[in-house]
Hints:
Rossmann fold, isomerase activity, P-loop_NTPase, alpha/beta, 9 strands
Amino acid sequence: MTDEPLSTRWSFQDFKMFYDAKFGRKKAPQSENGEVPHTAVSNGSSSGMTANGNGYVTDRPAMAIYEQYRNQDRSSTHSNGVLSNGSEEKPQKSLLPPFESVEMRNLAESLSRDIIRGSPDVKWESIKGLENAKRLLKEAVVMPIKYPKYFTGLLSPWKGILLFGPPGTGKTMLAKAVATECNTTFFNISASSVVSKWRGDSEKLVKVLFELARHHAPSTIFLDEIDAIISQRGEARSEHEASRRLKTELLIQMDGLMRTEELVFVLAATNLPWELDAAMLRRLEKRILVPLPEPEARRAMFGELLPSQPDEDELPYDLLVERTEGYSGSDIRLLCKETAMQPLRRLMAVLETRQDVVPDDELPKVGPIRYEDIEAALKNTRPSAHLHAHRYEKFNDDYGSQILE
């Protein structure tokens, strides 16, 4: 007995017609015998819809379209493309592009649940330092989107950008700031989003990802820890066939993206740039070093995380800047947290001596930060990203994008 073909999803217009006919909004087209047809054609094949006696749709794939139509109908009343307030209605873009098969559409739905859509709301000002990296990103991504007239032909924008550097230096923050500044759709992708245990699904997920990005263009695909997805290939390495297919599909999609005029940018971040495949390095045309914070950036971080109080002595920021050479942005945040925890520890020791629980409105105020608190925090918090600093500098000299004055 052969398997029955899988039912495809109804299109929005087909379901709207069924919904209007079911609840008496609009008369549906009838067949010769006067019955309302219960099948519709979508993606070139026939599909069906089932409903129980109360009129509720029981087909799970069609419930999403049902909710979309119901919410859209509740939000505004319209007639011939004009809203009730007299203004013209702006057509709403569909969440998913048309796919050639139900399988690809289902993969797109599962992938859409794992990604972040919309603006991440990260400003350039919230990132301290990294002026060179910001300038290169603005040149590669921000300016082509704001002024597309100038970036045509030979000056077409760079589609692949690699952010590399020690961990905790702000690579993810820079990618989110680019998406916020350009007001693009942000696809936050990790290895778990595009790797599947089923044979052939991983490369299909990669293809669906780029189709979604083109559909929502201008968009930014952020591949975090890309070295886990596309490390170096070679016969001497023990590599699974599925991994090679995934890498090949990603390279093909990247190559196709570079040959089009669509504003879809791929931002990749890694802490191990020397592990990347040479073919991927070629497609990531801009390779930007995100270094450890400089003294000016470290001072700005300390001033924001540990601000001096008006009725207290100013903290020794110069000492903190001098003693934190080689610290990353994450290390500095941990150092400030450990420093602010010292006065609270002294207060907790006093409160623990009391037998009863102090009400919230009677809790004493946390004391000021002392010099010995800073010394204790410096002893307990050590840098975590300074060991391979020379390797990043060498990779930047060999492959990195420099600023030409």
